[in-house]
C-alpha cells in the first residue's frame, strides 16, 4: 500500500487523488524547449519541478511503468530567424542548442525523460491529425494555410477558464484576412523560398507550434493520457489549442486527465528580460554553482507559487546541502523517508519536504537522511568536489592550523576542555571551522 498522491489539476482548479488510467503504464507529457537559444533559468523551473513528479511517480508505480515524454521543438519561426541571423544552417542551430540543453539538464541532476521526441520527426503524425480535423469539420484550408476553427468546438477555453469574449478581445490585434474567426489558429502554413518545408496536401509548408505537441503526445502516449505539464504561461493559448486539436481529432472529451502548471520566475524581484540585463541562462548559473544547489534552490518555493530567483536562495541551498551531506550516513538504500514522501505526495510540497529533511538531520537519522538524498538524486561527490575547488584560501598557514589542532587534541586528551574550546574559538576567529567526528577532527575554511 502506498499513500495517495494528490495533485492540483488546473482543469478542475482543485486537488485530486491521482489515479492513472493504466497503473502498468503511467503517462506524463511536458512541453519541452524550442531550441533556438540557451535555456534560461525560467526554463529550468518546469524541468526541475516535473522531474520531482517523475521521481514520485516512479516511486509509486515502478521505474518501468512510468513513461515521461518531453519534446524538443526544432521547427519554429524563432529558429528560422536565429539561424539566418547567425548565418548557420537550421540543423546546426537546433542540433547545437539541443545538445546544450541536454548538458544543462544532466548537470542539474534531473532524470532523463523516457523519450525526448523531436518535432521534425513527427511531420506525418501532424499531417494525419490535420487531415482528421478537416474531415471532422474542425479545420479549413485558406490560402495555403490550414486553420483550426475555434467556434467548431464547444467548450473551448475550459482549461484557462476564460470566456470566448475575453479571448477574442486578446486575439483581435491583427487578424489575418483568411481567418473565418479571429480566434482561429494555424495548424499548417506555407513555406516559401528557403524556409523549412514539407510536402503536404495543402502545398509545401510547415506546422504551427500547437499541433507539434498534439502529434508527439498522441504518437508516444495515445489519444488520452494521465498528466500534461508545463509552465503557467502555456495555459493559453498553447495548451488550450493542444486540447482543441487532440479532443476534436479523436472525438474525446479530454486530452489528459490532469493538467499541471508551474508558476512564473522573477530574478531578484524583477521580470527577467534581455533589456533589463538580468537575463540568466542555466549555463550561467552552473558556472558558479553545482547543479544540486540550483535544483534545491528552485525547490525551496512551491511550484505553483511565483518564485523569486535570488543569490540568497542559492546560498541557503548550498548551506542546507552541506549540512545534510555532513550528517548523512553512507551506503544507505535509495529510499525517501516517509515524512518526505508525504510532503511530496501533497501536490509536490517541496518547501515542506525541505523542512522534513532538516528534521531528519537534527534527529541524526543518518540512514534515512542518506536514503532520502539519494532518492532525490543529490550527488555528494560532485558537491564535495565543487566545495574543494571553490574553497577560500585559509587566513593562516596549514602548518599553523594543524599545530593548533594537535594542541587541541592534546588538551582534550588531558580533559582540559576549556583549553580545547579556547583553541577552537581562536581558529573560528580566523575563519577556520573545526569539525569533530568519531574518526577525528577535520577543518575547513568558513564560507
Ligand atoms: Zn506543448
Small molecules in complex: zinc ion
The N- to C-terminal Cα distance equals 45 Å
Main sheet summary: 4 strands, parallel
Low-confidence stretches are none
Fraction of residues in H or I helices: 40-55%
- Which CATH architecture of the largest domain? 3-Layer(aba) Sandwich
Number of domains: 3
Strand content: 15-25%
The helix/strand class is alpha/beta
Strands, total number: 15
Fourth-tier CATH superfamily name of the largest domain: HUPs
Radius of gyration: 26 Å
Reported by name, the CATH topology of the largest domain is Rossmann fold
- Name of the top-level CATH class of the largest domain: Alpha Beta
The shape is elongated
Strand order of the largest sheet: 4-3-9-10
Mean pLDDT: 94
Count of helical stretches: 16
Keywords: Aminoacyl-tRNA synthetase, ATP-binding, Cytoplasm, Ligase, Metal-binding, Nucleotide-binding, Protein biosynthesis, Zinc
Binding site for ATP: 274
Subcellular location: Cytoplasm
Cofactor: Zn(2+)
How are the secondary structure elements laid out?
Elements: E1 6-9, E2 14-17, E3 26-30, H1 41-61, E4 66-70, H2 77-86, H3 90-108, H4 123-135, E5 139-142, E6 145-148, H5 164-171, E7 185-190, E8 205-207, H6 209-221, E9 225-231, H7 235-250, E10 256-262, E11 265-267, E12 270-271, H8 282-288, H9 291-299, E13 307-309, H10 311-327, H11 338-345, H12 350-362, H13 366-375, H14 380-389, H15 398-413, H16 417-429, E14 432-437, E15 440-445
Parallel strand pairs: 3-4, 3-9, 9-10, 11-13
Antiparallel strand pairs: 1-2, 5-6, 6-7, 7-8, 11-12, 14-15
Helix pairs in contact: 2-3, 4-6, 4-7, 6-7, 9-10, 11-12, 15-16
GO molecular function: cysteine-tRNA ligase activity
Protein name: Cysteine--tRNA ligase
Subunit structure: Monomer.
Amino acid at each position: 500500500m502506498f499513500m495517495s498522491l494528490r495533485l492540483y489539476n488546473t482543469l478542475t482548479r482543485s486537488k485530486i487523488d491521482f489515479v492513472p488510467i493504466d497503473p502498468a503504464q503511467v503517462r506524463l507529457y511536458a512541453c519541452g524547449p524550442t531550441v533556438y537559444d540557451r535555456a534560461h533559468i525560467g526554463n529550468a523551473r518546469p524541468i526541475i519541478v516535473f522531474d520531482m513528479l517523475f521521481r514520485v511517480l516512479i516511486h509509486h508505480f515502478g521505474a518501468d511503468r512510468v513513461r515521461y515524454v518531453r519534446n524538443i521543438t526544432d521547427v519554429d519561426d524563432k529558429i528560422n530567424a536565429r539561424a539566418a541571423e547567425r548565418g548557420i544552417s537550421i540543423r546546426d542551430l537546433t542540433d547545437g542548442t539541443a545538445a546544450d540543453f541536454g548538458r544543462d539538464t544532466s548537470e542539474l541532476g534531473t532524470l532523463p525523460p523516457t523519450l525526448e521526441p523531436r518535432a521534425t520527426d513527427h511531420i506525418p503524425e501532424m499531417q494525419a491529425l490535420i487531415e482528421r480535423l478537416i474531415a471532422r469539420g474542425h479545420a479549413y484550408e485558406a490560402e495555403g494555410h490550414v486553420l483550426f476553427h475555434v467556434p467548431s468546438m464547444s467548450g473551448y477555453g475550459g482549461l484557462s477558464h476564460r470566456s470566448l469574449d475575453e479571448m477574442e478581445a486578446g486575439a483581435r490585434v491583427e487578424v489575418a484576412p483568411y481567418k473565418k474567426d479571429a480566434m482561429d489558429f494555424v495548424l499548417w502554413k506555407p513555406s516559401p523560398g528557403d524556409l523549412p518545408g514539407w510536402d503536404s496536401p495543402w502545398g509545401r509548408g510547415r506546422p504551427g507550434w500547437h499541433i507539434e505537441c498534439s502529434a508527439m503526445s498522441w504518437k508516444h502516449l495515445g489519444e488520452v493520457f494521465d498528466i500534461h505539464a508545463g509552465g503557467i504561461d502555456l495555459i493559453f493559448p498553447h495548451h488550450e489549442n493542444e486540447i482543441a486539436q487532440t479532443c476534436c481529432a479523436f472525438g474525446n472529451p479530454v486530452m489528459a486527465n490532469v493538467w499541471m502548471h508551474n508558476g512564473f520566475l522573477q530574478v531578484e524581484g524583477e521580470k527577467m528580460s534581455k533589456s533589463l540585463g538580468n537575463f540568466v541562462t542555466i549555463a550561467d548559473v552552473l558556472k558558479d554553482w553545482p547543479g544540486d544547489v540550483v535544483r534545491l534552490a528552485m525547490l525551496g518555493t512551491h511550484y505553483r507559487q511565483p518564485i523569486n530567483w535570488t543569490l540568497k536562495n542559492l546560498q541557503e541551498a548550498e548551506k542546507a546541502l552541506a549540512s545534510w551531506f555532513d550528517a548523512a550516513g553512507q551506503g544507505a538504500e535509495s529510499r525517501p523517508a516517509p515524512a518526505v514522501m508525504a510532503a511530496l505526495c501533497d501536490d509536490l510540497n517541496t518547501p515542506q519536504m525541505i523542512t522534513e529533511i532538516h528534521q531528519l538531520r537534527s534527529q541524526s537519522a543518518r540512514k534515512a537522511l542518506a536514503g532520502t538524498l539519494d532518492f532525490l538524486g543529490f550527488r555528494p561527490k560532485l558537491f564535495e568536489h565543487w566545495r574543494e575547488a571553490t574553497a577560500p584560501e585559509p587566513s593562516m598557514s596549514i602548518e599553523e592550523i594543524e599545530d593548533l589542532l594537535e594542541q587541541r587534541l592534546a588538551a582534550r586528551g588531558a580533559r582540559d576542555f576549556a583549553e580545547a574550546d579556547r583553541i577552537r574559538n581562536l581558529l573560528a576567529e580566523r575563519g577556520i571551522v573545526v569539525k569533530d567526528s568519531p574518526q577525528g577532527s577535520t577543518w575547513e575554511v568558513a564560507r
